[in-house]
Amino acid sequence: MIPLVHDFRGETVLVVGGGPVGARKARRFADEARTVVVSPEFAEGAFGDAELVRAAVTVDDADDWVARFDPALVVAATNDSEVNDALVAAARDHGALVNRADRSGERDVGSVVVPATIEDGDVAVAITTGGASPALSKYLRERIEAELAGAGEMAELTGELRAELKDSNRTPAERRDAIRAVVRDPSVWKALRSGDTNPRREAARVIRTTENEDA
Ligand SMILES: C[C@@]1(CC(=O)O)c2cc3[nH]c(cc4nc(cc5[nH]c(cc(n2)[C@H]1CCC(=O)O)[C@@](C)(CC(=O)O)[C@@H]5CCC(=O)O)C(CC(=O)O)=C4CCC(=O)O)c(CCC(=O)O)c3CC(=O)O
Ligand SMILES: NC(=O)C1=CN([C@@H]2O[C@H](COP(=O)(O)OP(=O)(O)OC[C@H]3O[C@@H](n4cnc5c(N)ncnc54)[C@H](O)[C@@H]3O)[C@@H](O)[C@H]2O)C=CC1
């Protein structure tokens, strides 16, 4: 398995099965994609902005459902493994990715796993065990979460600094040293996390230090 980051904007995600697992996946994908959940019943709880379609998918009409919504990704989250099998085949026939919620280990061609994810602004950390132990993915996510505080703002700040440094007369090596020093600097992190001092000013100070080193 190779982790990639997928942009689902403008795409449709079809989730089949409205239990707690279907709801969790629907919430996740509805943040970004048009998300449709098809199920005869829906668990209590949030489905995010997903559209709910009350129907049971059968082995014979799985293909019609996939053709109807033309999704980039099909999430097979029913508790009926034959229906999930049919959804995997339909997704493959339509060139869609498929995520199978009821199966670990052996994976179908073109299948994807939904990792445990931490997000802070544009920064995302995804954890997978290759399907071996979802509970471990969840536990590690909980442990790592606090580490990421301020990372989204650090990405924003250094993104701006990179653009500004590109417009200056520094060499690529000088720009690299400056950005590396900023992302590693405890006082910049502290400023981003506490708001007590101005992170931009701290970053400018750190960048000046790298200039002195080069001189
Ligand atoms: C293969 C995968 C397919 C997929 O769904 O993509 C899959 C499959 C299965 N999960 C099962 C069970 C549990 N899943 C969780 C939790 C999560 N499961 C997620 C992903 C994945 N689960 C993919 C692999 C990810 C990886 O590589 O690690 C997370 C990370 C992401 C998400 O789903 O959003 C989310 C945590 C999110 C978070 O909190 O951050 C818990 C924990 C809990 O509930 O406390 C349990 C109970 C404990 C246990 O069993 O481990 C079962 C057995 C069902 C049964 O026994 O009936 C199967 C099927 C099977 O094993 O056959
Ligand atoms: N990937 C994961 O993180 C986890 C996966 N699982 C697995 O995922 C499956 C789903 O988990 P839960 O949501 O907890 O199960 P659940 O049994 O609570 O919900 C299943 C849902 O699928 C719907 N459904 C059943 N047949 C259908 C059909 N033909 N067409 C459309 N919808 C149909 C049901 O109405 C129900 O809403 C479980 O069978 C289990 O194997 C379970 C826990 C975690």
List the helices and strands and how they pair.
Blueprint: E1 12-16, H1 20-30, E2 34-39, E3 51-54, H2 62-69, E4 73-76, H3 81-93, E5 97-100, E6 116-120, E7 123-127, H4 134-145, H5 151-166, H6 172-184, H7 186-194, H8 199-214
Parallel strand pairs: 1-2, 1-4, 2-3, 4-5
Antiparallel strand pairs: 6-7
Catalytic activity: precorrin-2 + NAD(+) = sirohydrochlorin + NADH + 2 H(+)
InterPro entries: Met8-like, NAD(P)-bd_dom_sf, Sirohaem_synthase_central, Sirohaem_synthase_N
Keywords: NAD, Oxidoreductase, Porphyrin biosynthesis
Would you give an account of this structure?
It comes from Haloferax namakaokahaiae. The chain is an alpha/beta fold and 215 residues long. It folds into 3 domains: 1-114, Rossmann fold (3-Layer(aba) Sandwich), CATH 3.40.50; 115-147, Double Stranded RNA Binding Domain (2-Layer Sandwich), CATH 3.30.160; 151-214. The chain contains 8 helices and 7 strands. The strands form 2 sheets. It has a 5-stranded parallel β-sheet, sandwiched between helices. Helix 1 (20-30) links the parallel strand 1 (12-16) and strand 2. It binds ligand SHN and 1,4-dihydronicotinamide adenine dinucleotide. Ligand SHN is lined by residues 24, 99, 101-104, 113-116, 128-131, 133-135, 137-138, 141.
Helix/strand structural class: alpha/beta
Measured by DSSP, the beta-strand proportion falls in: 15-25%
Corresponding CATH architecture of the largest domain: 3-Layer(aba) Sandwich
Ligands in the structure? Answer: ligand SHN, 1,4-dihydronicotinamide adenine dinucleotide
Mean pLDDT: 94
Radius of gyration: 22 Å
Order of helices and strands: EHEEHEHEEEHHHHH
Helix content: 40-55%
How are the strands of the biggest sheet laid out side by side?
3-2-1-4-5
- How far from one another are the termini? 46 Å
* Number of helical regions: 8
From the 3D structure, determine the CATH topology of the largest domain. Rossmann fold
Largest sheet: 5 strands, parallel
Anisotropy-based shape = elongated
CATH class of the largest domain: Alpha Beta
Q: Name the poorly predicted regions.
A: none
